């Protein structure tokens, strides 16, 4: 089979009754292991898996990119469908009290919509680490991602609540999945809150592999300035990324520019998309 990447949940969906929902869930299948990266917002990942003939019981591990509801809200349903004990790899800060706080509006809770005990009673075994986690000889998480570029920043509306006070969320829990192949790295992003380019630089440093075969997921450019979008495109070209499959929080405007700039190397990654590498 090699490596197969299937998007189970995304903001838009393909034909055949697939459900579209704000969020992301990507199934990574290799000859060694099956990993579900994020779980979508609610029912979409499990619903779409059923329609696509994918049994969630074959998932070996779950990796959470960060603690926002649109990446973790489907976790309860996935665990119910899996029907077994599963290791869930994530950063400790997924359990922080995460909010969105816009000026003039009340803060809105956007964190995990479940209690940890509830998920553990359904079979989740949380492996929480700030450091990269090596899952197989060729697959690992990034752990915390250093912010090295000067144009990738975290949206100020994203905050955490400590006691009665809010403070900026550094999104230290934001992480990606790295797969090393013979053609280079395949990187699966959740939202890349700490920057897609920062993430790719970190992935190359962790693995010692320079070539990047493909990048899939969301890269949080929906509210980015045009300057940041073009700086990101320039960096992706400099990195020599061979294939891009973006969606979710990338935003339509940024995605359209990238589709024009990268041509056939760019894919609008929607629910129902399956890529074999």
Q: What does this protein structure show overall?
A:
The termini are close together. The protein is of the alpha/beta class and 277 residues long. A hairpin with a 4-residue loop joins strand 2 and strand 3. The longest helix has 14 residues. It has a 7-stranded mixed beta sheet with strand order 8-5-4-3-2-1-17. It has one domain: 4-Layer Sandwich (Metallo-beta-lactamase, Chain A). The mean pLDDT is 97. It is globular, with a radius of gyration of 17 Å.
Topology diagram in text:
Blueprint: E1 4-9, E2 25-29, E3 34-37, H1 44-51, E4 61-63, H2 69-72, H3 75-82, E5 86-90, E6 98-100, E7 108-109, H4 116-121, E8 124-128, E9 139-141, E10 158-162, E11 165-168, E12 177-181, E13 184-188, H5 196-207, E14 212-217, H6 226-239, E15 243-246, H7 252-262, E16 266-268, E17 274-276
Parallel strand pairs: 3-4, 4-5, 5-8, 13-14, 14-15, 15-16
Antiparallel strand pairs: 1-2, 1-17, 2-3, 6-7, 6-10, 9-12, 10-11, 12-13
Helicity range of the residues? 10-25%
Q: What fold name goes in the CATH topology slot?
A: Metallo-beta-lactamase, Chain A
Q: What is the overall silhouette?
A: globular
Radius of gyration (Å): 17 Å
Tell me, what is the CATH class? Alpha Beta
The chain-level structural class is: alpha/beta
Order of helices and strands: EEEHEHHEEEHEEEEEEHEHEHEE
| Fourth CATH level, the homologous superfamily | Ribonuclease Z/Hydroxyacylglutathione hydrolase-like
Round the mean pLDDT to the nearest integer and report it: 97
Largest sheet: 7 strands, mixed
- Strands side by side in the biggest sheet: 8-5-4-3-2-1-17
Reported CATH architecture: 4-Layer Sandwich
**What percent strand?**
25-35%
Overall tally of structural domains = 1
List the total number of helices.
7
Note poorly predicted spans: none
- Tell me the number of strands: 17
- From the N-terminal CA to the C-terminal CA, the straight-line distance is 9 Å
